[in-house]
Amino acid sequence: MVLKVFFPSCCSSADSGILIGRWISEQNSAVILAVVHFPFIPVQVKQYLGEVQRMTKVSVSVLGSWNNSKQEKEESLSEFLEDLGTIFCHEPWIQISKEGDSKFWSCSTLQKHSKNPQEEEIILVYYDQRKVMLSHLHPPLDTAGQRAEDASKLSAIFDTVARSQVLFMTDRYDEGPIKLTHWQSDGVEASIIVELLKQASVPACMLLTFLLSLVSGICRSRVLKFWPLSFLWSKLSTCEQLGHRLQHLQVVSSNKKAQNQNQLMRKANIFVSLLIDVTLGILLMSWLYRKNRIGHLAETLIPVADHVAEELQDLLQWLMGAPAGLKMNRALDQVLGRFFLYHIHLWISYIHLLSPFIEMILWYVGLSACLGLTMALCILSDIIALLTFHIYCFYVYGARLYCLKIYGLSSLWRLFRGKKWNVLRQRVDSCSYDLDQLFIGTLLFTILLFLLPTTALYYLVFTLLRLLVVIVQGLIHLLVDLIDSLPLYSLILRLCRSYRLAAGVKFRVLEQQDGKPLRLLMQINPLSYGSVVQTYRLPTYSCYPRDSWASLCKKLFLGELIYPWKHKGDKQN
């Protein structure tokens, strides 16, 4: 039978003493947790182990002896270590010894109370206590019912180390009758700065929670539910991002303890995302207010808007002629061209009316960068939407007119075939028409058919302009979603301490020699970067329509409106 001994690598240089740990009979394995050094009193050791067992609910006991002799092996010490097996009474009694600077260890077992002692093959497995403790590969500590089922699995090893945290609270600087060697024996891992931040975070979180509850109460008030404010709150990207960040602040400032690893990682990812977002926003704000860049930007904005308006006027003049040699319906072409030219004239007047206030508006907008880079990007997206509002109006006019003609032609085409659309049953039924109905339908079909190329050309041009604006806004929102959803803390943790995000374990053979125990090294397999992003990715407020190419082409052909993104609660056209 194979006996597996899990030995902590931090104890390989410990002085001679006794091994304390847990015996797992289902696996015929021994998990060594620490080494107790000489001198000690056996009664005190038993009392200490009883207290640890009462607090951790883990059956911790003395499993054997550890002999680390840098000189030649002393017979008196080896006999004394063997005699300890009669005091602590554990079967089998494990004896591990390291002889001088030799890389080979000897490991044997004693079975004094067994009538038929059998020689067992021993596998010595080294493990890093710190990585096993922090890898979170063990089952949750509150799942007591599953421990009996997992007793024969490798998770029992991780569960034993994780639940023995009380054993690792004492170090060699603590005054006491018992001296231990474990992964924190050189000093409990802690930071004065971290402890001070923990103490200071309590009043800060209480104040932040009060302010957030006040802001959330204002946001949920009935004032924002009236038509103009509710419409702006649901359509402006800035309002959506502000509500999203308020939810993040509520999660971070909550005094409720995280129940599991995923909730803890979510809080940490949100905190790091907020920190980096605000830092980038402050850097952007400092760059904008340096060397009067806002004034230069305001001076450049009006000429750019005039240039865009002039280009649109030239485009409309080209469409009112013979674009690409196409012969259009002159009457409809002139009506549509003058209609859109009048809108451009109104837009230029609107821009020049706002020109004295643009620098002041940009100055106050730049202050919003202190709330984060994402807020500044959302405001930029809203400014682009306002500056290209005339293009959106052109697109809506052309799309509605084109859609009206397409549906009219499809209805009149069914009239030719003796069909009609049944609204109640949502299907096409047969129908008999009079001669007058067929005549009027033929005239209307002919008129709509010959006017369709002119309308389709205007619709195509303004759809391309609208798609250009949509692509720019989509890229901005992709960057916002990247900052909002990227689990930066998890990625940094994967880069610096990969064992904190463990996916499993692997064993590497250290040495194998006849007559010596097989020595293995247990290593932690970390999650891949793609799995980290997929597992700990944060939700975002905007959901981009992932339509197929066939669905997108169908929308373009039928003249349905296309939006760059769809917010929560919006209905898809």
TrEMBL record:
- Give the InterPro entries listed for this entry: PigQ/GPI1
Q: Which UniProt keywords apply?
A: Membrane, Transferase, Transmembrane, Transmembrane helix
Protein's GO biological process: GPI anchor biosynthetic process
Name the Pfam families on file.
Answer: Gpi1
* Highest taxon in the source lineage: Eukaryota
Is Ion transport included in the keywords of this UniProt record? Answer: no
Annotated Gene Ontology cellular component terms: endoplasmic reticulum; membrane
Asked if Magnesium is a keyword of the record, the answer is no
MF terms from GO for this chain are: transferase activity
- PANTHER family recorded for this chain? PHOSPHATIDYLINOSITOL N-ACETYLGLUCOSAMINYLTRANSFERASE SUBUNIT Q (PTHR21329:SF3), PHOSPHATIDYLINOSITOL N-ACETYLGLUCOSAMINYLTRANSFERASE SUBUNIT Q-RELATED (PTHR21329)
- Name listed for the protein in its UniProt record: PIGQ acetylglucosaminyltransferase
Organism annotation = Hippolais icterina (icterine warbler)
Whichever gene encodes this chain, its name is Pigq
